[in-house]
Amino acid sequence: MYRAVTLNAIRKQFIKPYDANNFYFDSSKIINSLNSLEFQFLHKSKFGYIMFMNGEDVNIELKGPDVSKHVSHISKMPLVRAEIVKMQQKIGLNKGVVMEGRDIGSVVFPNAELKLFITASLDVRAKRRHEELIALGMSVSMDEVLTNLKMRDFEDSNRQDSPLIRVKDAILIDNSHLSIKDQFKLVTDLIEKKNIFS
Hints:
Layout: H1 2-11, E1 15-17, E2 23-25, H2 27-33, E3 39-44, E4 48-53, E5 56-57, H3 65-75, H4 78-91, H5 104-108, E6 116-119, H6 122-135, H7 142-158, E7 171-174, H8 180-194
Parallel strand pairs: 6-7
Antiparallel strand pairs: 1-2, 3-4, 4-5
Helix pairs in contact: 1-3, 3-7, 6-7
């Protein structure tokens, strides 16, 4: 959802370059734009559930390098975070929701039935993201992806509002050496053990 807000800000030119490395963010326009954004997660068989913004499939654009470059700055804005958290909590009102994000267990759903802190080594995460972007037809180098991930990890872990942390009751899963099948089995076993859906 933060990526969608970022994509909209890029499209509307609420983010403008000072020079090659520095950007101006029009905070008031970015915050005001939230009132005109509607997010839906709809099923597409090939991709599972994907993000639609105002009825438009933006799934691929959300993963692009421009969005990745700016999303940490957008997500640091307290008023943006407050609004997105409200939207996420509304989605979870009827339960039966699996949600991922860097503050889901700490801020959005502190009383969730099951919290997982899923991670992998930086190199593994960069390799996976690079392969994903290449498969989507994007031209991006491994170094760019690695640099972006390092920056996001640092900024998200050190921001004042809702920093990226592992809460005490979150189960740590390092999937650096797990296949998707192995990880799925591990998580479903945890769900069954907790009797969440019984």
